[in-house]
Specification:
single chain, about 120 residues, mainly alpha, 5 helices, about 60% helix, extended
Length: about 120
């Protein structure tokens, strides 16, 4: 009985982490199985193996764990939606979405192009 009470006390003492503050759990196994089946059906010369697919997904998950909280809630939600669209869950897609958003933020505004404007010489 003491061990049960101790266990319950330990569980109750833990802080919970809101879902939005951790990388979502995605069913990448199903996505990898589907990818392998599609590659095989298409007769690709270099089809992706299930192990390679899972290695890529797990690598992306590790990277996401280190950058997840550095992004806004709205970006995390948008990228999660894109990474799970159509039932193909992918940490690779989720990471790519976040990396692209970082790239857009870091790219300076492009200079205004003047081209062959009729008003070019009037400036």
């Amino acid at each position: 009985m003491k061990s049960v009470l101790l266990f319950l006390a330990m569980i109750g003492g833990q802080t919970t982490i809101p879902v939005s503050e951790r990388v979502p759990q995605l069913n990448v196994e199903a996505t990898c199985r589907a990818t392998v089946a599609t590659d095989k059906a298409m007769g690709l010369d270099l089809p992706q193996t299930y192990d390679d697919c899972m290695r890529d997904e797990n690598s992306a998950l590790q990277q996401l764990n280190s950058v997840w909280l550095t992004n806004s809630d709205s970006l995390r939600n948008r990228c999660e939606g894109e990474a799970t669209a159509g039932g193909s869950d992918s940490y690779v897609d989720l990471l790519t979405c976040m990396q692209m958003a970082d790239w857009v933020k870091s790219t300076p505004d492009a200079p205004k192009l003047r081209g062959a404007s009729k008003n070019r010489n009037k400036l």
